[in-house]
């Protein structure tokens, strides 16, 4: 044999690894429809390995062929049910497998350890009927917990179920037992609760279900009634607004009229002549108009020059002068009366009329 070079030693080769499963020496056949119908297991924490094994066993029983035994069929078909992390665990498994019991034991040791069994046992021991949970729902939850682990039998935990019942259902169990529920055998207690749960589910006599349906109808009716009330209030408000608009009194606007130049374009304090003259001339014009009698015109001495400047401002008698209106009161309509004030005023007027 020729010596291998370094390149040949560094190159990887595809070496076929022998399977660690020793199958029975017999004819076998895996039907395609069986492979497509197999359940899948990914090895996640939320998956139940006992449930997966039960589903796999039921499927193999239904696709059983006379040319292959059920054990050989399980050993050959089980690897095709694994995916993801579970498939990696199977390929890296080094234990020698010669029968189906070994595969089942290794699978449960990996994905259903003793810690998970203890957690389920504590959950069953502490089980309690929840608020608004009827007897049928509580019983199904209890059976599901017990079925998740075949080592835990319902007969061993029926007392835990009875202690977790609500006071109403516990009183029923006591009365239905003809005395004390604890005096019955575990099998009789399970049969009694099973029949009551079936009746509860078939006829819908649970207080919880009636309450839920009643609550739904009450909420829907409340929504409809609320909408109707809102519509009526909106219509009433619109009608009251129309009535209130008939009684609105707007503040009459005071006409613009200047007391200096008798113009209707501005007020007295906005007269352009006041802006053009100086403060001194404005004071002299005010004094002349106030104390000058019936003189229509008045000459004022211009302090800025040696001559006289004639101010052509007509004199307006005091009786014809418009009253002074502050700027904040000009063109300000009276605020609209609110609906509450309007109703209060109408009630007061009605009470006065009745008196």
Structure in words:
This protein is an all-alpha fold and 355 residues long. Among the domains are: 18-112, no CATH class; 129-208, no CATH class; 268-328, no CATH class. Helix content is 54%, strand content 2%. It has 15 helices and 2 strands. It has a two-stranded antiparallel ribbon. Residues 206-223 and 293-311 have low confidence and may be disordered. Residues 77-166 form the Retrotransposon gag domain. Pfam families: Retrotrans_gag. InterPro entries: Retrotrans_gag_dom.
Find the structural class using helix and strand composition: mainly alpha
SSE topology string: HHHHHHHHHHHHHHEEH
Q: Could you give the distance between the termini?
A: 134 Å
SS element count, helices? 15
Q: Order of strands across the biggest sheet? A: 1-2
Could you give the count of β-strands? 2
Note poorly predicted spans. Answer: 206-223, 293-311
Which percent range fits the helix content? 40-55%
Q: Specify Rg, calculated over alpha carbons.
A: 51 Å
In percent terms, what proportion of residues is strand?
under 5%
Give the overall shape. Answer: elongated
Please tell me the overall pLDDT: 76
Tell me about the largest β-sheet. Answer: 2 strands, antiparallel
Please supply descriptive tags for the structure shown above.
Retrotrans_gag_dom; two-stranded antiparallel ribbon; 355 residues; 54% helix; 2 strands; mainly alpha
């Amino acid at each position: 044999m020729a010596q291998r070079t370094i390149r040949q030693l560094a190159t990887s080769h595809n070496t076929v690894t022998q399977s660690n499963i020793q199958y029975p020496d017999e004819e076998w056949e895996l039907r395609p429809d069986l492979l497509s119908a197999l359940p899948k297991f990914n090895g996640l924490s939320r998956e139940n390995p006992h449930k997966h094994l039960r589903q796999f066993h039921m499927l193999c029983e239904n696709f059983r062929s006379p040319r292959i035994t059920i054990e050989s069929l399980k050993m050959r078909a089980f690897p095709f049910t694994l995916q993801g992390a579970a498939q990696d665990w199977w390929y890296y498994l080094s234990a020698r497998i010669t029968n189906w019991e070994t595969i089942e034991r290794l699978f449960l040791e990996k994905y259903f350890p003793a810690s998970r069994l203890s957690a389920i046992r504590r959950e069953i021991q502490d089980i309690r009927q929840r608020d608004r949970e009827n007897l049928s729902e509580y019983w199904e939850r209890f059976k599901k917990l017990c079925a998740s682990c075949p080592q835990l039998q319902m007969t061993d935990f029926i007392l835990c179920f009875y202690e977790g019942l609500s006071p109403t259902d516990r009183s029923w169990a006591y009365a239905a037992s003809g005395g004390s529920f604890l005096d019955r055998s575990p099998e009789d207690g399970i049969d009694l609760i099973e029949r009551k749960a079936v009746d509860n589910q078939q006829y819908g006599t649970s207080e919880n279900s009636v309450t839920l349906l009643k609550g739904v109808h009450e909420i829907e009716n409340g929504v409809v009634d609320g909408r109707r009330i809102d519509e009526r209030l909106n219509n009433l408000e619109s009608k009251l607004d129309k009535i209130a608009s008939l009684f609105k009194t707007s503040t009459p606007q005071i006409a613009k009229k200047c007391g200096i130049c008798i113009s209707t374009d501005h007020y007295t304090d906005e007269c352009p002549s006041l802006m053009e003259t100086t403060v001194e001339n404005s004071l002299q014009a005010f004094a002349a108009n106030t104390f000058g009698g019936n003189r229509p015109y008045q000459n004022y001495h211009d302090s800025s020059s040696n001559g006289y400047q004639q101010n052509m401002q007509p004199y307006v008698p005091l009786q014809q002068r418009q009253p002074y209106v502050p700027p904040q009161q000009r063109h300000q309509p009276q605020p609209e009366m609110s609906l509450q004030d309007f109703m209060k005023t109408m009630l007061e007027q009605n009470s006065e009329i009745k008196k």
